[in-house]
Design the sequence.
């Protein structure tokens, strides 16, 4: 271990759909946080561990901070805000359309927590260098950020510089996790999220936001057997997820199974069921039962 080894927890916060999960997956070089084009895909705190010779950075990916209108949304925002308080350093991620007004919910929480923060403007591959600098200057006025810089989670531009800034900002300390570990998430959790990602990707309108996935059976072996329930809120949603002659559910299952096999490294038998759990997104008890606690 290096003489002046640094380690710490870095919360990644921002509005929904600004690329927080894409950044984490890029840096960790593992798919631990699901990604879709739809906002509010991430519902939980996702821990990803970056290991280097001189530092260990524990990233905490969080749900997008927004105005909650259901119990599920309140759960998501609470997860993000709680994580902010637990971190040694906060990385605020923004995108080119963000303004100080748009990120005011985030900066207000930062001010209350009195946390040191770095601003990372994502998606700079989509705008000119001059425009990126203009955006950084404007967003930098929203909070006394230690650093403001542009990055692209897609191309990797600026990420090496960002990692250097983060490492330098962390305190000296030991590794919190073994060097070969990249997340603390269970295989059951990761499988649940993979299935939910496919539902998000393949369905439209309100369906993704009314879906929860519950792993009811997980039997390791060759093959590994997984039985999962896709919960929706109404019968009409159930019909959409199942699809004509079961076509949609079959497509969800096929894509999920392929990703799960890559994750586990073994052949997988995946059985999906769809169940109506009325208004679960508004019901505190159902949220807890489905793992949102």
Sequence:
């Amino acid at each position: 271990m290096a003489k002046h080894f640094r380690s710490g927890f870095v919360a990644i916060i921002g509005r929904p759909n600004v690329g927080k999960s894409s950044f984490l997956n890029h840096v960790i070089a593992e798919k631990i946080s699901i990604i879709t084009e739809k906002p509010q895909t991430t519902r939980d705190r996702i821990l990803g561990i970056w290991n280097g010779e001189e530092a260990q950075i524990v990233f905490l990916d969080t749900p997008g901070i927004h105005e909650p209108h259901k119990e599920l949304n309140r759960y998501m925002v609470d997860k993000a805000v709680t994580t902010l308080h637990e971190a040694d350093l906060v990385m605020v991620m923004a995108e080119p359309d963000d303004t100080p007004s748009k990120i005011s919910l985030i900066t207000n929480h930062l001010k209350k927590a009195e946390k040191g923060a770095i601003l990372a403007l994502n998606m700079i591959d989509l705008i000119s260098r001059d425009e990126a600098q203009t955006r950084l200057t404007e967003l930098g006025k929203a909070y006394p950020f230690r650093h403001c810089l542009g990055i692209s989670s897609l191309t990797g531009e600026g990420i090496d510089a960002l990692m250097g800034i983060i490492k330098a900002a962390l305190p000296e300390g030991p590794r919190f996790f073994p060097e070969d570990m990249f997340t603390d998430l269970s295989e059951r959790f990761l499988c649940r999220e993979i299935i939910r990602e496919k539902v998000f990707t393949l369905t439209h309108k309100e369906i993704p936001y009314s879906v929860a996935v519950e792993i009811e059976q997980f039997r390791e072996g060759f093959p590994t057997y997984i039985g999962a329930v896709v919960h929706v809120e109404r019968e009409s949603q159930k019909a959409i997820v199942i699809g004509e002659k079961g076509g949609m559910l079959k497509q969800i299952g096929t894509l999920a199974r392929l990703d799960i096999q890559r994750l586990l490294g073994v052949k997988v038998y995946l059985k999906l069921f769809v169940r109506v759990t009325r208004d679960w997104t508004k019901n505190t008890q159902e949220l807890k039962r489905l793992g949102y606690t």
